[in-house]
Amino acid sequence: MFGLPEVKITNRHLSILGGVIVVAGFAGFEIYDLIVSKKGVSYFITNYQDWLYLLIFIAVGGVVEFGVNRLPPTLEKKLRIIALWIVVVLITAIAGSIAYLVWIVNTGANSF
Hints:
Elements: H1 11-36, H2 38-46, H3 49-69, H4 73-107
Helix pairs in contact: 1-2
């Protein structure tokens, strides 16, 4: 009667939990690395312009996200699909460029 409610854990719950654990692990490692390594803090002290770029990027991203959330649901969904396609194309292009450069370095080919 006064016990905890029964919770059914699905694969979706486990995948979300796994993602959160992985992201938290990477974030924790990065924070540890920033605090422990002497390069981390001194880099941001000497290159304070990078903080400005980061703040501008966050502000613009927040305004864009706010604008996207105000769109009608059908247009928002189309815009998000287009953005996903753009990200996939960029990642593919970057991976292809890196693979090409690795091939050039390993084979000694000089195509430049």
